[in-house]
Write a structure and sequence with these properties.
Layout lengths: L3 H8 L3 H9 L22 H17 L3 H11 L6 H8 L3 H20 L8 H6 L20
Helix pairs in contact: 2-3, 4-5, 4-6
Amino acid sequence: MKSPILQVKETFGDKKKLVEAVEKFTGEELWLGRTNDKKGLAHVSNAKLLKLHTTFSLVKEKFGTRFKLVDAIVALESRAKDEGFRTRLLAYPVPRLWDMYKSADKRKAHATAHGTATPATPEAKADKKPKAKAAPAPKKKVAAAKA
C-alpha cells in the first residue's frame, strides 16, 4: 500500500491541488460548516484529505447533495415519518452520513438475502412474538423416612 504522500503526488501532483479539489465540495450542498478552524484544510493530513475527497466524490456522484443522502438513509431505515430522526441526521457531517448509509444498505441486503427482513404489517409482527413458556410442574415433597 502506498503512503498518503505518494498517493497525493500521483493523483493530484501536490497537496495544494488536493486541498483545492476538496474545497470544491465545501459548498452548501455537501459541506457542513460547523467548525471554527481558522487554519483551514491546508493543515489537515494528507490521509484525511484523501478520505474526504473520496467520500465527497462518491456522495456527489451517487446522490448529488447531502439532503438526498439523508433521505436515502431514512428510506433504508424505514423511518420516513420520523422527523426527529431526519433532523438529527441533517446535523451530521457527510462522512458520518456515508458510513450510516453503507451500514444500513448492508443490513438491508443481508436481511433480504437471508429472509430475515422485518415484517411490515402489525399482524405479521404479532405472529413473530415468542410463545409463552409452559409453567414448570410442581415438585413433589418427599417425606423423610423414619428409621
